[in-house]
């Protein structure tokens, strides 16, 4: 079948309207589409993500999450940022997908796995009267080499702890952490003064240094078990919360000796608090809420 004809079929495959659920994790909202129930054209998902994310001409969210059958887990999750770029992991969406599939009866156990582009993730839903209020996620072991981030610029295999970065006329110290997606963490004295809007867009798309882009986090250490947190997300800009980012922040705080590994840390994000625990065995655990906002029918912008 020639490419033009297959593209025509691809275009035709997208339904005229899509059932969706809007959910959020600490204010980081996405449009969730159930690919078990409706056929979705893979090639059109980045465009769909841009369309549904627009607050004026779409539904309004930080991006699109597609749930689909998996051969290795109860469900597969694909993540598309507001700009249509696809990400390999998303902490807040993992909690919301876990809530969705449990409450819809698509899974029966309270502990199960979700397949992502960064691998299999184990989740445990906390149920109160049949409703999931919180979810605990094993986010796996952070990767700490420049080649993992990835980052270029002469630090090929060195660790990424407190690496000097030239940005916006400054030299700032960044700690790089991959949680399946790339994060750069900067420690600041006052979170309210953090250069989110200046450093964020410069570094998020600084592909010479970060070939796959970067989620840019700013952290103020409150005490040995609390962090203040802000984020400029790759592909979505400022969001009220970032689950993988909160994990990266705690890992970076341990690596910089601000907090201890093996202790539960409360991360204060714009959208609320998340509990992060980097176990001495290696896995980072994230615990936080998941909320269903609404369900509806998206008429594909007709
Ligand atoms: N913008 C991220 C994906 C979403 C991550 C975030 N919303 C979370 O909860 O982890 C990236 O491009 O890697």
Automatic annotation (TrEMBL):
GO terms for biological process: lysine biosynthetic process via diaminopimelate. Its main location: cytoplasm. Keywords: Amino-acid biosynthesis, Cytoplasm, Isomerase, Lysine biosynthesis. Its EC number is 5.1.1.7. Coiled coil: none annotated. Pathway: Amino-acid biosynthesis; L-lysine biosynthesis via DAP pathway; DL-2,6-diaminopimelate from LL-2,6-diaminopimelate: step 1/1. Substrate binds at residues 28, 81, 91-92, 181, 215, 233-234, 243-244. Homodimer. Catalyzes the stereoinversion of LL-2,6-diaminopimelate (L,L-DAP) to meso-diaminopimelate (meso-DAP), a precursor of L-lysine and an essential component of the bacterial peptidoglycan. Belongs to the diaminopimelate epimerase family. PANTHER family: DIAMINOPIMELATE EPIMERASE, DIAMINOPIMELATE EPIMERASE, CHLOROPLASTIC. This is Diaminopimelate epimerase. The gene is dapF.
